[in-house]
Amino acid sequence: MKKWKSSLLGLTLWSLAAGSFAAPQQLDKVVTIVNDSVILQSDVDAMLKTVRMNAAGQNQPLPSDDILVDQIMEKLIIETLQIQQAEQFGIRIDDNRLDQAISQLAAERQMSVAQLRQYLADNGISFAAFREQMRRDLTASEARTIQVRRRINILPQEVELLAEQLNKQNLQDTSYNISHIQLRISEDASAEAREAAQQQARELAQQLKQGADFANLAYRYSKGPKALQGGQWGWMRKEEMPTIFADQLGASGKGAIIGPFRSGVGYHILKVNDVRGLETISVTEINARHILLKTSVILSDEGAKRQLEKARRAIMAGEQSFADAAQALSADPGSAANGGELGWQTPDIYVPAFKDKVETLPVGTISEPFKTVHGWHIVEVLERRDVDRTDAAVKNRAYRILFSRKFNEEAQAWLQELRAGAYIEKPEETNDPS
């Protein structure tokens, strides 16, 4: 069964991209009517020529012409139906997007666009015709994707289950070097003592996430079995460590702080010092604060820039705090109420100009005023930290696998429904007196 893909930039393009390669025949005729469109004999002949050319280039034997023509007719009917759907949605592939797709196709074939153009010419295919068939393929693909996406429902439980299976596969040969802090709670401890232990565990975890030395905190606070070793348990596979540790680790990577989490004896915090046999994924998060001014008929670009320059000078001179300036000036109500703070975020969530600024600005430095699509800003990076995202990456991979599976299934079902509901007529059959 054919697997549908959102990208048509692979080898299958060459068997599909023939509808308009050949010049119209002098005695062309309609071979099939598809709703309000027609498929011409020249379309079939052109695709047949292309299929034969590709097969010859790959030394691939072909079935008889009767079988080939039936397969080609089916492809042309399905393509026509999808193009009709795209017209209903108002889908149009512009020239820039088309040029990018052609460049990508050429790169995949280890050619330049000029070499691709020459290759087509050597095989009797005009580049203009090739471009328009590529446009049709991309248009059909986008229409299919829009419709099929609406039919896909992926439950969180499905993602969790598949992610767990992927983790088990990935972790078979994985060892962890971990450290541990345990805050013990006696069986007869009062509610106040239990709450105090929980609060202390949260505070220790926060300190560790901000870079505090794990061994020092373990020596001072831990009541666990490895407290006198700075909490260090050394290298272990999951099956060798306490079950409660293994259950909490998931697919955590190097540097991950896990917890606090509760057991029958108290609260625990783990740190993954290192990992062997597991590909980990780490991202940089940035804690920044900013002041935003939006231009209007009253406030020009130059006026906004001057106001921010004045505020920056006052903050740097100690005449006003950043938080006070943000509350007084900023047009971003969400962050202004928090003194301009945006919280820990990965830079990718920001617009390009803001992303570039927070990625390159030294910690503790207030930027010069700069403009984005949102307005004028000054920004200060308060902290940076590397955060493990291995577990999230596994879940993303699980979601993509499930989506791909369901997309392929639903695409087939949708195309069958589309074809079943279409008016398809072959004039030769209609006129056949027998």
From TrEMBL:
A molecular function (GO) held by this record is: isomerase activity
Indicate the secretion signal residues: 1-22
Compartment(s) of residence: Periplasm
**UniProt cross-references to InterPro entries, sorted A to Z:** OMP_Chaperone_SurA (IPR050280), PPIase_dom_sf (IPR046357), PPIase_PpiC (IPR000297), PPIase_PpiC_CS (IPR023058), PPIase_SurA (IPR023034), SurA_N (IPR015391), Trigger_fact/SurA_dom_sf (IPR027304)
**Which EC number(s) does the record attach to this protein?**
5.2.1.8
Keyword Signal among UniProt keywords: yes
Q: Which residues form the PpiC domain?
A: 173-274, 283-383
Where is this protein chiefly located? periplasm
Its keywords, alphabetically, are: Chaperone, Isomerase, Periplasm, Repeat, Rotamase, Signal
Q: What's the domain of life for this entry?
A: Bacteria
Swiss-Prot/TrEMBL catalytic activity: [protein]-peptidylproline (omega=180) = [protein]-peptidylproline (omega=0)
The top EC class, named as a word, is isomerase
Q: Which PANTHER family match?
A: CHAPERONE SURA (PTHR47637)
Q: What does this protein do?
A: Chaperone involved in the correct folding and assembly of outer membrane proteins. Recognizes specific patterns of aromatic residues and the orientation of their side chains, which are found more frequently in integral outer membrane proteins. May act in both early periplasmic and late outer membrane-associated steps of protein maturation.
Query: Know anything about its domains from the record?
Result: The PPIase activity resides only in the second parvulin domain. The N-terminal region and the C-terminal tail are necessary and sufficient for the chaperone activity of SurA. The PPIase activity is dispensable for SurA to function as a chaperone. The N-terminal region and the C-terminal tail are also required for porin recognition.
UniProt-recorded name of the protein: Chaperone SurA
Q: What is the lineage of its organism?
A: Bacteria, Pseudomonadati, Pseudomonadota, Gammaproteobacteria, Vibrionales
